[in-house]
Each structure stands twice: as C-alpha cells, then as structure tokens.
Amino acid sequence: MHTIRAAGLAVLLVGAAAALAADTELKVGDPAPAFEAMDDQGKEWKSADVVGKKIVVVYFYPADCTGTCTKQAKGYRDNLEKLAEKGATVVGVSGDTVDNHKVFKQKEKLNFTLLADPEGKVAKAFGVPYTAGKKSFKTMVEDKEIELTREGTAQRWTFVIGKDGKILHKDTKAPGGDDAKTVLEVIEKAGQ
Predict the structure, then answer these.
(1) How far is Cα 84 from Cα 8, in angstroms, rounded to an integer?
(2) Closest CA to 97 of 39, 47, 35
(3) For residue 16, how many other CB atoms are within 10 A of its CB?
(4) Domain boundaries in the chain?
C-alpha cells in the first residue's frame, strides 16, 4: 500500500515540476535574466554592464566554425553597424570554449562578442535547450587543420532585450543567415 502511495506521489511531483517548468519559460515582456560568462578574450562579461544602457541581442547557436552557425555569425558581422546605429549590441553564446571562440572570430573576422557557455548555465537561464557532451571536429584556419572541442550544444534561439531590461523578442527557430536581418526589423518596429 505504501509503495503505491509513494509511486502516486512521485507521479504528482513530476507532473507539478513539469507544469512549473512550463510556467517559468521566458516570454516577450518578461524581465531578462542576469547572466555572466567568459568572453572570447578570456574576460568576464556581465549582462548588468550593458542591459538598461543598450538593446542587447543574445543569440544562442550550436557550434563555432560550422555551416549554419557561420552563416548566422556572418549575418551579425555584416549587419553590426546597422544594429549599433539602433543602439544594439550583439553577443553570441555557445558551448564552445574561449579558445574555440578566438579561432572562430579570427577565421570569420567577427566584430562582436562571443560568450563561452560550456556548462550551459546561460542557456538554462534563458530556457534554451542544451545538451551536455563533448563533441570534436576539425576545421581549416589559414591552411592549417585545427581540432575544436565543445562541452555541449545549445539550440539556435535568439532573444532581444530592450533598454527596459525586458524580453522584446524571442525566436526559438532562429533562421541562421537571416537572423540579424530579422532582429534589425524587430528593433526598428519597436522604435527602441
């Protein structure tokens, strides 16, 4: 009898936890979570230093130096001046290491900050699905093959944090190469 009650209680607790998780998902209009991570230069980057002063674009992507992720990064690189004119700053977040980010920035001449999130803490703060587990692959940089290893993989989601510190835009199906253009349109329509 006690076993049945315990099993029933466990089912109720799991169901309640799932409902709570669904209720705590970030939505447009919610306050953005505060976060910090190591940037591509190995320095601590804190959202508190930027949120409230600028519009902050936080885009999560699976991996440095891979097809769609590279197209997405180049889109931000090529539109960064237009975004800056609208008062926005951009940070890309992945499970890659600081060293991987250095390689990616050099290889693609990226002009914005990349944040290392090897444990998925920033991804979790935003509710972005993150899968732990090392993955390695090789890429060419200046005619030299380099092996990059990341600790985990975040899904491709994009958030725009307004100057008021609230989520202005959330995209759980961010379109790789066109993500920066979509974000620019969102900022222009919001008139921030």
Answers:
(1) 55
(2) 39
(3) 10
(4) 27-190
Backbone φ and ψ of 35, nearest 5°: -155, 160
What DSSP state is assigned to residue 61?
Answer: -
Q: Contact 69/179 with Cβ under 8 angstroms?
A: no
Q: pLDDT tens-digit profile of 111-142?
A: 999 999 999 999 999 999 999 999 988 888 88
Q: How confident is the model at residue 144 (pLDDT cuts 50, 70, 90)?
A: confident
pLDDT 10s digits, 85-109: 999 999 999 999 999 999 999 999 9
The catalytic residue positions are: 69
Does residue 179 contact residue 75 with C-beta atoms inside 8 Å?
yes
How many other C-beta atoms can be found within 10 angstroms of the C-beta atom of residue 82? Answer: 14
Question: The tokens of 123 are what?
Answer: 């991804």
Q: Within 13 A of 18's CA, how many CA atoms are on the CB side?
A: 6
Superfamily of domain 27-190: Glutaredoxin (3.40.30.10)
pLDDT of residue 161: 98
